[in-house]
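ingest -> validate -> predict -> emit
validate: passed (alphabet ok, no gaps, 405 aa)
predict: started
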Amino acid sequence: MKYPYAKHRLSHQDIILGVKALKSGIISRGKFTRELEERLCEETGATFCVAVSSGSAALHCAYLAFADEFSRKKEAIGVNENSNPLQRIFNHSRKLISSPITFASAITTGVLTGFSPEFCDILPDEPQIDTKLVQQKLEDLKTQGEQSIIVPTAMTGQSYNQKELYRIAKSFNTPIIADHSHSLGAYISDENGLLPMANTRYADLIILSFQTTKVITGGGEGGAILTNSEETYRKLLVIRSHGIVYENLQRSNMGIHYHEMQLPGLNYRITEMQAALCVSQLKRIGQIIEQRNIVASWYYELLQKVEKIELPQIKDSIPAWHLFAVRLKERNRVATKLRKKGIGTQVHYLPVYKHPWFEQNGFVPKENCINAETYYESALSLPMYPQLRKKDVLFIAETLKDILK
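emit:
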């Protein structure tokens, strides 16, 4: 592809810092990991940050933290859900409320942790979760006495009406794990001015991804979890590293070598090289977001008068523009012809419940999410990355218009 739909760029300085990390002699859980966590807190306003190996790892750690918390709450009030302790954690009675227009792992990691998905449709004119449907879903679940969690996605790097969703969540005492894999560096309007879109003011946990197509990348992978809760932060540190602890042990006098696993966890540690690459890119994230917005402005300038194309809406925000997703008819035909011209595109996303595994295991909503399915049938992500110049966008836009004619 002459123009892939996404393309990362590592500068010479990024590579120098990555090599420095490799030569440091400490290739995991060293100073670059700590610096990345500190810089992400500065960028977003979060109090605590835990860097991990991927965005999916971040989601899994977050779900595990809340599954443990939910189990402890029920035990505290004397509710014994099941005599089998594993069933208390992985029983799928807890509900995961999400939009179906998200990456599959946002839901899969929840299912693997014992949450059962409840899908709410998106808005008719944008791929963001409909907050009114979330409130209705929470009212239904309340009558059933079910524990639940909300997992919204800041699709394409734009806001999902965070303030309203947070208000609804708090009225039902329901936590939010917000997937901001697309939106690092973006801003939303707040009563006090601009606020980072990936902020912990309107969510209990924020998930970030540094996968190769994202705004910054850890050389292909990487992720992080943001929170203001010290208790959750301490728990996430343990989950990130197999659930094993070396202090506050339940057994004593076992020797200086002794350690024990107190929570279910896996090896989700980020490498020092990944952290160093992300640290270097964070230093210029403002420039990266500015250039992405310039590229988006060129698309608007060149395509806004084309009747057969519906451009994405911008609502009170400075988007990250991880994706530039347009809507048009005969999407598959257009994508095929663009590809023949060297223009790569992608579709974000197939509604999660349409994936065979979710269908086969009964995770399909009773009522189809019509807006989500309509969006999927027409959505097409055009090339979007900072290296694009106006002549490139002009070629893409003119080729697209010729195909539509």
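Residues 285-404 form a domain with the Aspartate Aminotransferase, domain 1 fold (CATH 3.90.1150.10).
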